[in-house]
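Our consortium's second objective concerns turning raw sequence data into structural hypotheses that experimental partners can test. To show how far this objective has progressed, the report includes one record in full. It was chosen at random from the queue rather than selected for favorable results. The single chain below, 230 residues long, was entered without modification.
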Amino acid sequence: MSQKPTILFDLDGTLIDTAPDLMSAHNHVMKKFGYIERELDDIKKLAGRGSKVMIKKSIHEIAERTGKIKKTNENEAEEMTKEFINYYSQNICNESKPRVGVLDFLTWCKKNSILMAVCTNKQEHLSIDLLKKIKLYDFFDYIAGGNTFNYNKPDPRHLTSIIEIVGGNLKKSIMIGDSETDSKAAKEADVTFILIENGYTEKKPDQIHYNHLIKNFVGLEEIIQKYIND
């Protein structure tokens, strides 16, 4: 019997729509440190590379918009990131919710003994806490955050290390994500990539490399079934 595929999932914007809670934490920090607050669409474009990258990128964009360009103060960025994580960890699941079809798809995968893992740039403890609170944690065989290893997406080792840990086969593995960060990691790892639309990225789908494009998780079983039958 051939080995069933291993599926890796990005978290923010892919499995769960976390933007409202990310925005709340982001704007709390911005207000505290004297910066302007951002809108939900801004947050969706800023998320995906971890909290520190989001904060620094947001500060840079604000500077460009206001014309007040200044070199990023690393100490301030560190303090802002700590404040963000502290606030977010206490408000991680106020408005976040799974994307359409996620629960049914994960249930189907579990019934079919498909190995599943989360591969996210969100910190590991925050990822685990969110998945537990939203009641998705038990579906997964492994959860790797942006600080689990000494590397993270778009480094392909973030994917390949997880596949090795769960006992999967690289040639039978699939990555599901919402951004060019996920796409680049999957491509360099030589892993099939499924792009979900309306995620957290500035790019349009036709600007991102993918093998399959989906609007949500409804009906995704049909695509995965083809890989099971291979």
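The partners drew two points from this record. The two ends are 11 Å apart (CA to CA). The first helix runs from residue 19 to 32. Both points have been shared with the crystallography group to help prioritize constructs.
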